[in-house]
Amino acid sequence: MKKLFFALSLLLTVFASSCIPHKDTLYIQNKGNQVDSLQTIVEQQKAYRVQINDILNIRVKALDQENVQIFNPIGNGDLNASSVEKSYFDGFTIDLHGNIRIPTLGKMNVLGYTTEEIEQRIEEKLLEEQFKETANIFVTVKLTGLKYVTTGEIGNTGTNVLYQERVNILEAIANSGDIPVTGDKKDVLIIRQYPQGQKIHHIDLTDVNVMQSPYYYIQPNDMIYVKPLKQKAWGTGTNVLQNIGAVATVLSLISTTIILLQRI
Description:
By secondary structure, the chain is an alpha+beta fold. It folds into three domains: 2-19 and 237-263; 24-46 and 145-231, Roll (Outer membrane lipoprotein wza fold like), CATH 3.10.560; 55-143, 2-Layer Sandwich (wza like fold), CATH 3.30.1950.10. Helices cover 31% and strands 20% of the residues. The chain contains seven helices and ten strands. The strands form three sheets. The protein has a five-stranded mixed beta sheet with strand order 7-6-10-8-9, with helices on one face. Strands 2-1-5 form a three-stranded antiparallel beta sheet, sandwiched between helices. The protein has a two-stranded antiparallel sheet with strand order 3-4. Helix 1 (2-17) runs antiparallel to helix 7. The longest helix is centred in the last third of the chain and has 24 residues, at 240-263.
């Protein structure tokens, strides 16, 4: 009987410790460690500078639109193609050398420039080589959607594209099916591409200060990785009720084994 009581106490301790705390399941909690947000706000407001493999959507307008038709997609492609596919075929992909190839203008290096700076460069080159000031050339350059990848312990893994100028980490995760209870919200990894290579950044989504992080807004080609909690690896329940059920099953098995052994 003492052995049974000891086994019961041990199992209850193990399963109680394996429950996922409620505070670890909540987003943006006020943990009382408010920090100065001036520097991070400045970082968040910096314009994105294009990278290799980004796809740009370039449109040129003028008083006589026929004169600039060559710069704009005709739009007679596959009508069944998705928006992402159309963006790929109609857009201008930045190659490994940081160049895009524009009709009549040839190659132009845009690596590390903002979309506004690229607009100015194309407009200046058109006025130098193709048109006069009276043509009223107007150039727009945009990224063809904000593409990112989600992997790990998250609702839906894979590549996602959102057609917005800015997307924060919570929006990106919500668009990917949210993080389940078994996902680690306290240490989410953002793998970001830079001209020098990739870097890993860690953010805590349970802390309200995440909104002041320079990595709160995601960038094109970011990879968001959510690690599973240890409780999932242990195979235990995520709450007390599930653990009680597991304990009852184990105890039933132990009791049955003891009774059978006593009868031998």
